[in-house]
């Protein structure tokens, strides 16, 4: 019984570690860029992010309709 608890405990710790690493390094949904990539056009939309109090400008890609937020 002791080995079963150790086995599942180690698996749980590895799962938590992988989750934290993937969230910290690979999840870029909230990542604000300093410069817009090629193909994005500057719009007149500017807003202040309420969580960081940073001014962000919206850029638009005409080819695929994607929008990104770039810190000013």
From TrEMBL:
Transmembrane segments: 6-26
UniProt superkingdom: Bacteria
Record flagged with keyword Transmembrane helix: yes
Keywords, comma-separated and alphabetical: Membrane, Transmembrane, Transmembrane helix
Protein name as annotated: Uncharacterized protein
Source species of the chain: Desulfosporosinus meridiei (strain ATCC BAA-275 / DSM 13257 / KCTC 12902 / NCIMB 13706 / S10)
